[in-house]
Amino acid sequence: MSHHEIHRLHRVGWLRAAVLSANDGIVSTASLIIGVAAAGATQTSILLAGVAGLVAGAMSMAAGEYVSVSSQSDTENADIALEKHSLEHDFEFEKEELAQIYESRGLEPALAGQVADQLMAHDALGAHVRDELGITDTASSQPVQAAFFSAVTFTIGAALPLLVAWLVPGSQLITLVACTSLLFLASLGALAAQAGGASLSIGAIRVAFWGAVAMVLTAGVGRVFGIVS
Ligand SMILES: [Zn+2]
């Protein structure tokens, strides 16, 4: 039987991660470039700061993602081991527990018991991991992939303002880096909103607004620095 409604959940997870880290790449690198330029630095120093920001940001994103996803995977593995132990030592209790979960989801007690019986006969651990712990294949964490993925998407985001700074030297740099970065951010926000089935304009404005705040603040700091130094 064909499936009519379009579910977006399966693609929101990785897309949200991609948009967030690309967004970080654009905002942090564009702000860095604008701040250093506002302080009156040379083109070489601006690009150097941009490249350093890109590498540092990509590595910190990867490290942060690896650590957070690894600790989630540690927790999942510990829970699964606990479940395995309980199944080996108290199978009847576990069967009752699973039946109660199905009952709480709306099944009649007799049917819930039957379903628990059959699912535990088929794959007891799988049934508990999925229906009791809520760990599904798609949700289970892969630290290395997640780290690599966020480093790559951060780098793509950061490369955009860096490219503009490299192509447009001199007095136009701050304006053009700011405008193009806001455009990139708005497009990213709209893309994420569209994939999630939300309003494109709200998604675009939300992301661009915070990017603009970050760039204005760093430009201000850079300007002050340029004056006092
Ligand atoms: Zn259990």
Summarize the structure in short:
This protein has a domain at 10-72 and 148-228. 83% of the residues lie in helices and 0% in strands.
User: Runs with pLDDT <50, length 5+?
Assistant: none
Q: Measured on Cα atoms, how large is the radius of gyration?
A: 25 Å
How much helical structure, as a percent, in the residues?
A: over 70%
- Mean pLDDT, to the nearest integer, reads 90
State the secondary-structure class: mainly alpha
Molecules bound to protein: zinc ion
Note the run of SSEs as H and E.
HHHHHHH
Query: How many strands, what sense, and barrel or not for the largest sheet?
Result: none
Kindly estimate the percentage of residues that lie in beta strands according to DSSP: under 5%
Helical segment tally? Answer: 7
How many strand segments? 0
Tell the overall outline.
elongated
Distance between the termini: 71 Å
Question: Could you please describe the fold and organization of this structure?
Answer:
The protein has helices spanning 9-38, 43-89, 91-104, 109-131, 143-167, 173-195, 200-228. With 229 residues, it is mostly helical. It has a domain at 10-72 and 148-228. The mean pLDDT is 90. Zinc ion (ZN) binds at residues 83, 86, 94, 97, 128, 132.
